[in-house]
Protein backbone atom coordinates (compact mmCIF):
# COMPACT_ATOMS: atom_id res chain seq x y z
CA UNK A 1 0.00 0.00 0.00
CA UNK A 2 1.32 3.44 -0.94
CA UNK A 3 -0.04 6.88 -0.22
CA UNK A 4 0.17 10.20 -2.06
CA UNK A 5 -0.46 13.77 -0.99
CA UNK A 6 -3.64 15.43 -2.23
CA UNK A 7 -1.32 18.22 -3.45
CA UNK A 8 1.02 15.91 -5.36
CA UNK A 9 -0.47 12.71 -6.72
CA UNK A 10 2.73 11.47 -8.35
CA UNK A 11 5.00 11.02 -5.34
CA UNK A 12 4.38 8.23 -2.83
CA UNK A 13 5.21 7.32 0.76
CA UNK A 14 4.79 4.07 2.71
CA UNK A 15 2.01 3.52 5.23
CA UNK A 16 4.40 3.82 8.17
CA UNK A 17 5.84 7.09 6.87
CA UNK A 18 2.36 8.57 6.31
CA UNK A 19 1.26 7.60 9.82
CA UNK A 20 4.42 8.64 11.68
CA UNK A 21 4.66 11.93 9.80
CA UNK A 22 0.94 12.75 9.90
CA UNK A 23 1.05 15.47 7.25
CA UNK A 24 2.93 15.70 3.94
CA UNK A 25 5.42 18.58 3.63
CA UNK A 26 3.37 20.21 0.86
CA UNK A 27 0.39 20.92 3.16
CA UNK A 28 -1.84 18.36 1.45
CA UNK A 29 -3.32 15.26 3.10
CA UNK A 30 -2.20 11.67 2.69
CA UNK A 31 -4.50 9.40 0.64
CA UNK A 32 -4.13 5.71 -0.26
CA UNK A 33 -3.10 5.22 -3.90
CA UNK A 34 -6.34 3.31 -4.50
CA UNK A 35 -9.06 1.54 -2.53
CA UNK A 36 -9.20 -2.21 -3.17
CA UNK A 37 -12.66 -3.78 -3.29
CA UNK A 38 -13.71 -6.20 -0.58
CA UNK A 39 -15.00 -9.57 -1.79
CA UNK A 40 -18.71 -9.97 -2.50
CA UNK A 41 -18.69 -12.98 -0.24
CA UNK A 42 -17.63 -10.70 2.63
CA UNK A 43 -20.05 -7.86 1.82
CA UNK A 44 -23.02 -10.22 1.47
CA UNK A 45 -22.27 -12.15 4.66
CA UNK A 46 -21.34 -9.40 7.11
CA UNK A 47 -23.60 -11.02 9.69
CA UNK A 48 -21.18 -13.93 9.99
CA UNK A 49 -18.39 -11.62 11.19
CA UNK A 50 -17.83 -9.97 14.59
CA UNK A 51 -17.07 -6.23 14.69
CA UNK A 52 -13.37 -7.01 15.17
CA UNK A 53 -13.36 -9.50 12.31
CA UNK A 54 -14.94 -6.87 10.06
CA UNK A 55 -12.30 -4.34 11.11
CA UNK A 56 -9.58 -6.89 10.39
CA UNK A 57 -10.93 -7.77 6.94
CA UNK A 58 -11.25 -4.10 5.90
CA UNK A 59 -7.74 -3.21 7.14
CA UNK A 60 -6.11 -6.33 5.72
CA UNK A 61 -7.61 -5.59 2.30
CA UNK A 62 -6.49 -1.96 2.43
CA UNK A 63 -2.98 -2.53 3.83
CA UNK A 64 -2.18 -5.40 1.43
CA UNK A 65 0.32 -7.18 3.62
CA UNK A 66 2.17 -4.11 4.93
CA UNK A 67 1.59 -5.38 8.48
CA UNK A 68 1.70 -9.16 9.12
CA UNK A 69 -1.77 -10.56 9.85
CA UNK A 70 -1.11 -11.61 13.43
CA UNK A 71 0.26 -8.17 14.33
CA UNK A 72 -2.67 -6.50 12.61
CA UNK A 73 -5.12 -8.66 14.56
CA UNK A 74 -3.53 -7.57 17.81
CA UNK A 75 -3.65 -3.88 16.83
CA UNK A 76 -7.36 -4.22 16.09
CA UNK A 77 -8.24 -6.31 19.12
CA UNK A 78 -6.48 -3.83 21.40
CA UNK A 79 -8.16 -0.75 19.87
CA UNK A 80 -11.60 -1.70 18.53
CA UNK A 81 -12.65 -3.21 21.84
CA UNK A 82 -16.03 -1.63 22.52
CA UNK A 83 -19.29 -2.01 20.58
CA UNK A 84 -21.16 0.25 18.12
CA UNK A 85 -24.79 -0.81 18.59
CA UNK A 86 -27.81 0.38 16.61
CA UNK A 87 -30.95 1.61 18.39
CA UNK A 88 -33.97 1.73 16.10
CA UNK A 89 -36.39 4.61 16.66
CA UNK A 90 -38.78 3.25 14.03
CA UNK A 91 -38.54 1.03 10.92
CA UNK A 92 -36.73 3.68 8.96
CA UNK A 93 -34.83 5.69 11.54
CA UNK A 94 -31.83 4.05 13.17
CA UNK A 95 -29.27 5.50 15.55
CA UNK A 96 -25.70 4.19 15.46
CA UNK A 97 -24.29 4.77 18.94
CA UNK A 98 -20.59 5.55 18.63
CA UNK A 99 -20.07 6.66 22.23
CA UNK A 100 -19.35 3.40 24.02
CA UNK A 101 -15.59 4.00 24.22
CA UNK A 102 -13.62 5.47 27.15
CA UNK A 103 -14.07 9.16 26.27
CA UNK A 104 -17.74 8.78 25.19
CA UNK A 105 -17.30 10.09 21.65
CA UNK A 106 -16.64 8.43 18.29
CA UNK A 107 -13.13 9.91 18.31
CA UNK A 108 -12.11 6.96 20.53
CA UNK A 109 -12.13 4.67 17.48
CA UNK A 110 -9.62 6.79 15.59
CA UNK A 111 -7.45 7.74 18.55
CA UNK A 112 -7.12 4.19 19.89
CA UNK A 113 -6.32 2.67 16.51
CA UNK A 114 -3.76 5.39 15.81
CA UNK A 115 -2.14 4.82 19.22
CA UNK A 116 -1.78 1.08 18.65
CA UNK A 117 -0.44 1.43 15.13
CA UNK A 118 2.02 4.21 16.06
CA UNK A 119 3.35 2.11 18.94
CA UNK A 120 3.72 -0.77 16.52
CA UNK A 121 5.71 1.25 13.97
CA UNK A 122 7.74 2.77 16.82
CA UNK A 123 8.81 -0.58 18.30
CA UNK A 124 12.52 -1.24 18.35
CA UNK A 125 13.21 2.48 18.15
CA UNK A 126 15.12 3.37 21.29
CA UNK A 127 14.49 7.09 21.02
CA UNK A 128 11.26 8.04 22.72
CA UNK A 129 8.49 9.55 20.55
CA UNK A 130 6.77 12.66 21.94
CA UNK A 131 3.28 13.44 20.67
CA UNK A 132 2.02 17.01 20.95
CA UNK A 133 -1.73 17.67 20.83
CA UNK A 134 -3.61 20.92 21.17
CA UNK A 135 -7.23 20.37 22.16
CA UNK A 136 -10.34 22.44 22.62
CA UNK A 137 -11.93 19.56 24.53
CA UNK A 138 -12.89 16.27 22.93
CA UNK A 139 -9.86 15.24 20.91
CA UNK A 140 -7.50 15.47 23.89
CA UNK A 141 -9.53 13.04 25.98
CA UNK A 142 -9.70 10.42 23.24
CA UNK A 143 -6.00 10.76 22.42
CA UNK A 144 -4.92 10.69 26.09
CA UNK A 145 -6.85 7.53 26.85
CA UNK A 146 -5.82 5.92 23.54
CA UNK A 147 -2.10 6.40 24.19
CA UNK A 148 -2.17 5.69 27.93
CA UNK A 149 0.79 3.43 28.77
CA UNK A 150 1.83 3.06 25.10
CA UNK A 151 5.46 1.85 25.13
CA UNK A 152 8.12 4.33 24.04
CA UNK A 153 5.58 7.13 23.55
CA UNK A 154 4.95 10.23 25.66
CA UNK A 155 1.95 12.49 25.12
CA UNK A 156 1.81 16.22 25.87
CA UNK A 157 -1.66 17.76 25.74
CA UNK A 158 -2.09 21.54 25.58
CA UNK A 159 -5.50 22.89 26.54
CA UNK A 160 -6.83 26.41 27.17
CA UNK A 161 -7.19 27.20 30.87
CA UNK A 162 -10.80 27.66 31.96
CA UNK A 163 -12.20 26.92 28.50
CA UNK A 164 -12.98 23.21 28.73
CA UNK A 165 -15.66 21.63 30.92
CA UNK A 166 -14.75 20.18 34.33
CA UNK A 167 -15.12 16.56 33.19
CA UNK A 168 -13.28 17.22 29.92
CA UNK A 169 -10.41 18.68 31.94
CA UNK A 170 -10.37 15.63 34.21
CA UNK A 171 -10.16 13.39 31.15
CA UNK A 172 -6.91 15.16 30.25
CA UNK A 173 -5.34 15.69 33.66
CA UNK A 174 -5.97 12.57 35.75
CA UNK A 175 -4.39 9.75 33.76
CA UNK A 176 -0.73 10.14 34.76
CA UNK A 177 1.87 7.65 33.42
CA UNK A 178 3.01 8.81 29.96
CA UNK A 179 0.38 11.59 29.64
CA UNK A 180 1.14 15.20 30.66
CA UNK A 181 -1.33 18.07 30.50
CA UNK A 182 -0.22 21.66 29.97
CA UNK A 183 -2.81 24.22 31.04
CA UNK A 184 -2.21 27.23 28.82
CA UNK A 185 -3.31 30.66 29.98
CA UNK A 186 -4.80 31.55 26.59
CA UNK A 187 -7.15 30.29 23.89
CA UNK A 188 -7.27 27.08 21.85
CA UNK A 189 -5.57 28.98 19.01
CA UNK A 190 -2.68 29.86 21.36
CA UNK A 191 -2.29 26.15 22.16
CA UNK A 192 -2.26 25.31 18.48
CA UNK A 193 0.31 28.04 17.78
CA UNK A 194 2.64 26.64 20.48
CA UNK A 195 2.42 23.19 18.91
CA UNK A 196 3.13 24.57 15.44
CA UNK A 197 6.12 26.55 16.74
CA UNK A 198 7.50 23.39 18.31
CA UNK A 199 7.33 21.50 15.01
CA UNK A 200 9.16 24.34 13.23
CA UNK A 201 11.93 24.71 15.84
CA UNK A 202 15.11 23.10 14.46
CA UNK A 203 16.95 22.87 17.77
CA UNK A 204 14.00 21.20 19.49
CA UNK A 205 13.53 18.71 16.67
CA UNK A 206 17.19 17.76 16.71
CA UNK A 207 16.86 16.76 20.38
CA UNK A 208 13.36 15.27 20.61
CA UNK A 209 11.40 13.07 18.19
CA UNK A 210 8.19 15.06 17.92
CA UNK A 211 5.00 14.13 16.09
CA UNK A 212 1.33 15.08 16.17
CA UNK A 213 -1.86 13.12 16.76
CA UNK A 214 -3.76 15.41 14.50
CA UNK A 215 -7.23 14.49 13.31
CA UNK A 216 -6.05 14.45 9.72
CA UNK A 217 -3.66 11.56 10.28
CA UNK A 218 -4.79 8.76 7.95
CA UNK A 219 -4.55 6.35 10.91
CA UNK A 220 -7.49 8.13 12.53
CA UNK A 221 -9.60 7.97 9.41
CA UNK A 222 -9.30 4.29 8.49
CA UNK A 223 -10.85 2.83 11.70
CA UNK A 224 -13.83 5.16 11.31
CA UNK A 225 -14.85 3.18 8.23
CA UNK A 226 -15.29 -0.01 10.30
CA UNK A 227 -18.55 1.00 11.94
CA UNK A 228 -20.30 1.71 8.64
CA UNK A 229 -19.93 -2.02 7.87
CA UNK A 230 -20.91 -2.90 11.43
CA UNK A 231 -24.07 -0.78 11.15
CA UNK A 232 -24.98 -2.32 7.80
CA UNK A 233 -24.54 -5.75 9.32
CA UNK A 234 -26.90 -5.02 12.20
CA UNK A 235 -29.61 -3.70 9.90
CA UNK A 236 -29.11 -6.74 7.64
CA UNK A 237 -31.21 -5.24 4.84
CA UNK A 238 -29.72 -5.55 1.36
CA UNK A 239 -32.99 -4.71 -0.41
CA UNK A 240 -33.73 -1.12 0.60
CA UNK A 241 -31.52 1.88 -0.10
CA UNK A 242 -29.55 2.78 3.03
CA UNK A 243 -28.54 6.36 3.71
CA UNK A 244 -25.94 7.33 6.30
CA UNK A 245 -26.45 10.63 8.10
CA UNK A 246 -23.23 12.11 9.46
CA UNK A 247 -23.08 15.10 11.84
CA UNK A 248 -19.99 16.82 10.47
CA UNK A 249 -17.32 19.35 11.43
CA UNK A 250 -13.94 18.53 9.90
CA UNK A 251 -15.62 15.92 7.67
CA UNK A 252 -13.36 13.04 8.70
CA UNK A 253 -16.25 10.83 9.74
CA UNK A 254 -18.11 11.20 6.45
CA UNK A 255 -14.86 10.70 4.50
CA UNK A 256 -14.45 7.35 6.29
CA UNK A 257 -17.97 6.44 5.13
CA UNK A 258 -17.05 7.32 1.56
CA UNK A 259 -14.05 5.00 1.89
CA UNK A 260 -16.33 2.16 3.06
CA UNK A 261 -18.52 2.81 0.00
CA UNK A 262 -15.49 2.85 -2.31
CA UNK A 263 -14.38 -0.50 -0.90
CA UNK A 264 -17.73 -2.02 -1.83
CA UNK A 265 -20.28 -1.38 0.94
CA UNK A 266 -23.57 -0.68 -0.93
CA UNK A 267 -24.41 2.65 0.72
CA UNK A 268 -26.96 4.43 -1.44
CA UNK A 269 -26.49 8.00 -0.20
CA UNK A 270 -24.86 10.25 2.40
CA UNK A 271 -26.27 13.19 4.27
CA UNK A 272 -23.84 15.76 5.65
CA UNK A 273 -25.52 17.39 8.65
CA UNK A 274 -24.06 20.63 9.92
CA UNK A 275 -24.86 23.40 12.36
CA UNK A 276 -24.66 27.09 11.41
CA UNK A 277 -21.14 26.39 10.12
CA UNK A 278 -22.64 25.36 6.80
CA UNK A 279 -19.65 25.66 4.44
CA UNK A 280 -20.00 22.17 2.96
CA UNK A 281 -23.84 22.05 2.68
CA UNK A 282 -23.57 25.41 0.93
CA UNK A 283 -20.98 23.96 -1.45
CA UNK A 284 -23.16 20.90 -2.15
CA UNK A 285 -26.09 23.17 -3.08
CA UNK A 286 -24.25 25.81 -5.08
CA UNK A 287 -20.79 24.57 -6.05
CA UNK A 288 -19.22 27.50 -4.21
CA UNK A 289 -16.74 26.74 -1.44
CA UNK A 290 -16.34 29.67 0.94
CA UNK A 291 -14.46 28.83 4.14
CA UNK A 292 -14.85 31.39 6.91
CA UNK A 293 -14.19 31.77 10.66
CA UNK A 294 -16.26 29.36 12.76
CA UNK A 295 -19.34 30.34 14.75
CA UNK A 296 -20.01 28.97 18.26
CA UNK A 297 -23.02 26.64 18.50
CA UNK A 298 -24.60 24.06 20.80
CA UNK A 299 -23.03 21.25 18.77
CA UNK A 300 -19.58 22.71 19.37
CA UNK A 301 -17.51 19.76 18.16
CA UNK A 302 -18.76 20.72 14.69
CA UNK A 303 -17.84 24.40 14.92
CA UNK A 304 -15.42 24.34 12.02
CA UNK A 305 -15.17 27.06 9.40
CA UNK A 306 -12.60 25.44 7.12
CA UNK A 307 -13.08 21.65 7.25
CA UNK A 308 -9.71 19.92 6.92
CA UNK A 309 -10.95 16.75 5.23
CA UNK A 310 -12.71 18.59 2.41
CA UNK A 311 -9.55 18.11 0.32
CA UNK A 312 -9.91 14.34 0.72
CA UNK A 313 -13.59 14.47 -0.29
CA UNK A 314 -12.71 16.39 -3.43
CA UNK A 315 -9.97 13.91 -4.22
CA UNK A 316 -12.44 11.01 -3.86
CA UNK A 317 -14.85 12.63 -6.31
CA UNK A 318 -12.21 13.62 -8.87
CA UNK A 319 -12.60 17.30 -7.94
CA UNK A 320 -16.03 17.33 -9.60
CA UNK A 321 -18.89 19.07 -7.83
CA UNK A 322 -21.47 17.18 -9.82
CA UNK A 323 -20.21 13.78 -8.60
CA UNK A 324 -20.04 14.86 -4.99
CA UNK A 325 -23.44 16.53 -4.91
CA UNK A 326 -25.10 13.45 -6.43
CA UNK A 327 -23.76 11.24 -3.65
CA UNK A 328 -24.05 13.62 -0.67
CA UNK A 329 -26.89 15.92 0.36
CA UNK A 330 -26.13 18.68 2.83
CA UNK A 331 -28.38 20.32 5.42
CA UNK A 332 -27.67 22.81 8.17
CA UNK A 333 -29.63 23.79 11.27
CA UNK A 334 -29.66 26.58 13.84
CA UNK A 335 -29.32 26.03 17.59
CA UNK A 336 -33.05 26.71 17.96
CA UNK A 337 -33.80 23.89 15.51
CA UNK A 338 -31.26 21.63 17.23
CA UNK A 339 -33.10 22.04 20.55
CA UNK A 340 -36.34 21.21 18.75
CA UNK A 341 -34.66 18.04 17.42
CA UNK A 342 -33.55 16.94 20.90
CA UNK A 343 -37.09 17.54 22.17
CA UNK A 344 -38.81 15.71 19.29
CA UNK A 345 -36.62 12.62 19.64
CA UNK A 346 -37.23 12.56 23.38
CA UNK A 347 -40.99 13.08 23.15
CA UNK A 348 -41.64 10.76 20.20
CA UNK A 349 -39.23 7.94 20.97
CA UNK A 350 -38.18 8.42 24.59
CA UNK A 351 -34.56 8.51 23.40
CA UNK A 352 -32.06 11.06 24.70
CA UNK A 353 -29.95 12.36 21.81
CA UNK A 354 -27.02 14.77 22.07
CA UNK A 355 -26.94 18.07 20.10
CA UNK A 356 -24.70 16.60 17.34
CA UNK A 357 -26.95 13.58 16.84
CA UNK A 358 -29.98 15.90 16.90
CA UNK A 359 -28.57 17.83 13.94
CA UNK A 360 -28.28 14.48 12.14
CA UNK A 361 -31.85 13.55 13.02
CA UNK A 362 -33.17 16.84 11.62
CA UNK A 363 -31.20 16.34 8.41
CA UNK A 364 -32.64 12.87 7.95
CA UNK A 365 -36.21 14.16 8.46
CA UNK A 366 -35.56 16.90 5.89
CA UNK A 367 -34.23 14.38 3.35
CA UNK A 368 -37.11 11.97 3.98
CA UNK A 369 -39.61 14.59 2.76
CA UNK A 370 -38.47 13.91 -0.81
CA UNK A 371 -37.27 10.35 -0.26
CA UNK A 372 -39.94 8.76 1.92
CA UNK A 373 -38.77 5.17 1.38
CA UNK A 374 -35.14 5.64 2.48
CA UNK A 375 -33.84 3.92 5.57
CA UNK A 376 -31.45 6.11 7.50
CA UNK A 377 -28.64 5.34 9.90
CA UNK A 378 -27.83 8.44 11.93
CA UNK A 379 -24.39 8.52 13.54
CA UNK A 380 -24.72 9.49 17.21
CA UNK A 381 -21.23 10.87 17.71
CA UNK A 382 -21.24 11.59 21.47
CA UNK A 383 -23.01 10.50 24.62
CA UNK A 384 -25.66 13.08 25.66
CA UNK A 385 -24.07 13.44 29.12
CA UNK A 386 -21.10 15.17 27.47
CA UNK A 387 -23.52 18.01 26.73
CA UNK A 388 -25.55 17.51 29.88
CA UNK A 389 -26.58 21.12 30.46
CA UNK A 390 -27.93 21.83 26.97
CA UNK A 391 -29.78 18.51 26.84
CA UNK A 392 -31.30 18.82 30.33
CA UNK A 393 -32.46 22.36 29.51
CA UNK A 394 -34.54 20.95 26.67
CA UNK A 395 -35.89 17.65 27.98
CA UNK A 396 -36.37 18.91 31.58
CA UNK A 397 -35.05 15.64 32.98
CA UNK A 398 -31.73 14.53 34.41
CA UNK A 399 -29.23 12.97 32.02
CA UNK A 400 -27.25 10.11 33.55
CA UNK A 401 -23.48 10.30 33.44
CA UNK A 402 -21.97 6.88 32.71
CA UNK A 403 -19.82 5.49 35.52
CA UNK A 404 -16.54 5.76 33.56
CA UNK A 405 -16.99 9.52 33.24
CA UNK A 406 -18.60 10.13 36.62
CA UNK A 407 -15.67 8.60 38.56
CA UNK A 408 -13.36 11.29 37.14
CA UNK A 409 -15.07 14.01 39.19
CA UNK A 410 -13.28 12.80 42.34
CA UNK A 411 -9.87 12.27 40.77
CA UNK A 412 -7.10 14.77 41.37
CA UNK A 413 -6.24 17.10 38.52
CA UNK A 414 -2.54 17.32 37.67
CA UNK A 415 -1.52 19.95 35.16
CA UNK A 416 1.41 22.24 34.46
CA UNK A 417 0.60 25.91 34.02
CA UNK A 418 2.07 27.66 30.99
CA UNK A 419 1.73 31.10 29.47
CA UNK A 420 1.49 31.57 25.70
CA UNK A 421 5.23 32.27 25.17
CA UNK A 422 7.14 29.68 23.20
CA UNK A 423 10.42 29.85 25.21
CA UNK A 424 9.15 28.40 28.53
CA UNK A 425 7.24 25.69 26.62
CA UNK A 426 10.39 24.74 24.68
CA UNK A 427 12.52 24.75 27.84
CA UNK A 428 9.98 22.53 29.56
CA UNK A 429 10.05 20.03 26.68
CA UNK A 430 13.86 19.90 26.64
CA UNK A 431 14.07 19.47 30.38
CA UNK A 432 11.50 16.67 30.47
CA UNK A 433 12.18 14.63 27.33
C1 LIG B 1 -15.43 15.61 16.23
C2 LIG B 1 -16.89 15.48 16.37
C3 LIG B 1 -17.78 15.63 15.28
C4 LIG B 1 -17.30 16.01 13.90
O1 LIG B 1 -16.64 14.96 13.25
P1 LIG B 1 -15.77 15.26 11.94
O2 LIG B 1 -15.10 13.98 11.63
O3 LIG B 1 -14.79 16.33 12.34
O4 LIG B 1 -16.70 15.71 10.88
C5 LIG B 1 -19.12 15.43 15.49
N1 LIG B 1 -19.60 15.14 16.71
C6 LIG B 1 -18.79 15.00 17.79
C7 LIG B 1 -19.40 14.71 19.11
C8 LIG B 1 -17.42 15.16 17.66
O5 LIG B 1 -16.63 15.04 18.75
Category by helix and strand content: alpha/beta
CATH topology of the domain at 85-103 and 220-398: Rossmann fold
**Cα end-to-end separation:** 33 Å
Number of strands: 14
The biggest sheet amounts to:
6 strands, mixed
| Fraction of residues in H or I helices | 40-55%
Bound molecules: pyridoxal-5'-phosphate
Number of helices: 20
Please tell me the overall pLDDT: 95
Low-pLDDT sequence parts: none
**Strand fraction:** 15-25%
* CATH architecture classification name of the domain at 85-103 and 220-398: 3-Layer(aba) Sandwich
Query: What is the CA-atom radius of gyration, in angstroms?
Result: 21 Å
Assembly form of the protein: single chain
Please outline the helices and strands.
Layout lengths: L1 E4 L2 E7 H7 L8 E3 L7 H5 L6 H13 L5 H11 L6 E3 L4 E5 L9 H16 L6 E6 L3 H10 L5 E8 L5 H8 L5 E6 L3 H13 L1 H6 L1 E4 L5 H4 L4 H10 L6 E6 L4 H11 L6 E6 L4 H8 L23 H7 L4 H7 E5 L2 H15 L5 H14 L6 E6 L7 H8 L7 H4 L9 E3 L3 H11 L1
The structure holds pyridoxal-5'-phosphate.
Question: Could you please describe the fold and organization of this structure?
Answer:
- The chain has 433 residues and is of the alpha/beta class.
- The protein has a domain of 198 residues: Rossmann fold (3-Layer(aba) Sandwich).
- It contains 20 helices and 14 strands.
- The strands form three sheets. The chain has a six-stranded mixed β-sheet with strand order 4-5-13-10-11-12, with helices on both faces. A five-stranded parallel β-sheet has the order 9-6-7-8-14, sandwiched between helices. A three-stranded antiparallel β-sheet has the order 2-1-3.
- β4 and β5 form a beta hairpin.
- The chain is globular and about 60 Å long.
- It binds pyridoxal-5'-phosphate.
- The site of pyridoxal-5'-phosphate has 15 residues, from α12.
